[in-house]
Design brief:
By secondary structure, this protein is of the alpha/beta class. The chain has helices spanning 11-26, 59-70, 94-100, 118-130, 139-147, 172-177, 198-209, 225-231, 234-245, 261-270, 287-294, 305-310, 324-336, 338-351, 357-373, and strands spanning 2-3, 34-38, 50-55, 77-81, 105-109, 133-136, 156-158, 184-189, 215-220, 252-255, 273-276, 298-301, 317-318. The strands form three sheets. It has a six-stranded parallel beta sheet, with helices on both faces. The protein has a four-stranded parallel beta sheet with strand order 4-5-6-7, sandwiched between helices. The chain has a three-stranded parallel beta sheet with strand order 1-2-3. α7 (198-209) links the parallel β8 and β9 (215-220). α1 packs across α15, α2 packs parallel to α3 and α7 (198-209) runs parallel beside α9.
Length: 412
């Protein structure tokens, strides 16, 4: 695996860690190790599976990582890609690693843009050329790959974002654990950044509270580390000031820390309604939205790409961007109608069963095997980026050992 890994605090780090855990649980005889990407001026106490630390801005580190992987005996590389986690223009440094690998590559694309700039377009096309398979998590991303980046449909695999196997239960028990017993809980989880649109939920609270005075809105998560480097906790302070200005500060609970998986599970299960009020359409994946779907929550969301797809067919309520009144109306309607809210959660829960991590692990393993079976030297592309150069490395075909279709005893 190449990507971020906990204890680094970001969604891709959590995803990489969860995917490693799932594959290890389902295929106990499969060894998984990680090349972890470190952001500038940071060092983490990684677990033993992290065997190489990649320095984000150091081009030589990418070439050294390729040499390490080639000599490791690995059969296949699983690359977690997002433009912002790699060095160079639009994350172009990762191409130097891919250029020097001689084993198959399966790349999971956490962001696929509909309107990329020139650098983003070229970097993505080169990644596609040097990957044996490309994994996306939504139909939107698959369509953009085909229509915008001209990737062959045969190369694309659709595997949903993984989720833990949470129970479908009433939130009352979990409210005791989160000190919200007797309250109606609206919840948003995840690292804070201004694109999340949380001010629109706070702006909806006066109207909600006029009908349901027991509502609290929990905002769980610390400021995103990249945002904090630039502007500190300004967004968090703005949210707190808005709650005070509107007189709802006693109904907004900030849990200003990075949540462990156990804390996340307990909080999501305690929610009556989960809200993802992103401000913009171009959000390819939301791990917390998938998490809430998997817990069978009633969900209110703006119609960003991932939400429009996941919440189709009555699995959630979509409201316009930047519209506190619409959020308030949708919330009140769900809280006024327990049967409708519970039915929505049940539809969400049933739809999410193929997204549970053990199922996702099997999908990835099938993709890895296909990549090894079909591995070939990609065509060289001309890349008009000054930071990219060099000649392609020789590649050789390798294959995974024959895999049993029966998971190890650790699986479900």
């Amino acid at each position: 695996m190449i990507g971020n890994h906990v204890p680094r605090q970001c969604g891709i780090a959590t995803f990489t860690t969860d995917l490693c855990n799932a594959i290890t649980a389902e295929y106990g005889d499969t060894k998984v190790f990680v090349v972890a990407v470190n952001d500038p001026q940071s060092h983490y106490s990684y677990p033993a599976r992290v065997r190489f630390e990649l320095t984000e801005a150091a081009l030589a580190s990418y070439r050294a990582a390729a040499g390490f992987i080639n000599s490791s005996g690995a059969d296949v590389v699983s690359l977690q890609h997002e433009y912002g986690i790699f060095g160079g223009r639009s994350g172009s440094h990762i191409l130097h690693l891919l250029e020097h690998l001689n084993i198959p590559v399966v790349t999971t694309l956490h962001t696929v843009l509909r309107e990329p700039n020139v650098d983003q377009l070229v970097v993505m096309q080169e990644i596609a050329a040097r990957s044996d398979r490309l994994v996306v998590m939504s139909e939107h991303s698959s369509r953009f790959l085909r229509d915008v980046f001209r990737v062959s449909e045969e190369k694309i695999e659709l595997i949903p974002h993984g989720i833990p196997n949470l129970p479908f239960e009433e939130p009352a028990f979990f409210k005791k654990l989160s000190s919200t017993e007797g309250m109606t809980v609206l919840l948003t989880c995840g690292l804070l950044s201004p694109n999340k649109g949380l001010e629109n939920v706070i702006g909806a609270l006066p109207q909600i509270l006029s009908r349901h005075s027991d509502v609290v809105y929990i905002i769980a998560g610390a400021t995103h580390p990249h945002v904090r480097l630039v502007e500190g906790d300004r967004y968090l302070l703005q949210l707190q000031a808005l709650a005070t200005e509107l007189g709802v500060e006693e109904h907004v609970i900030f849990q200003n820390r990075f949540l462990s998986p156990q804390e996340m599970a307990s909080l999501v299960c305690s929610a009556d309604i989960y809200v993802t009020p992103y401000r913009y359409e171009a959000q390819a994946v939301s791990g917390t939205l998938a998490y809430a779907l998997g817990a069978g929550k009633a969900i209110i969301s703006t119609p960003y790409w991932h939400a429009a797809e996941l919440l189709n067919n009555g699995r959630g309520t979509l409201v316009p961007f930047e519209d506190p009144a619409a959020i308030a109306q949708a919330t009140v309607e769900l809280l006024d109608n327990d049967a409708a809210r519970n039915s929505m959660g049940k539809r969400a829960y049933l739809h999410s069963r193929p997204m549970v991590w053990n199922q996702v692990a099997h999908s990835y393993m099938r993709t890895f095997v296909r990549a090894c079976s079909n591995h070939m030297q990609p065509a060289r592309m001309e890349i008009p980026l000054q930071t990219i150069g060099g000649s392609p490395a020789d590649r050789r075909t390798r294959s995974l050992p024959t895999l049993s279709s029966t998971p190890s005893p650790g699986g479900e």
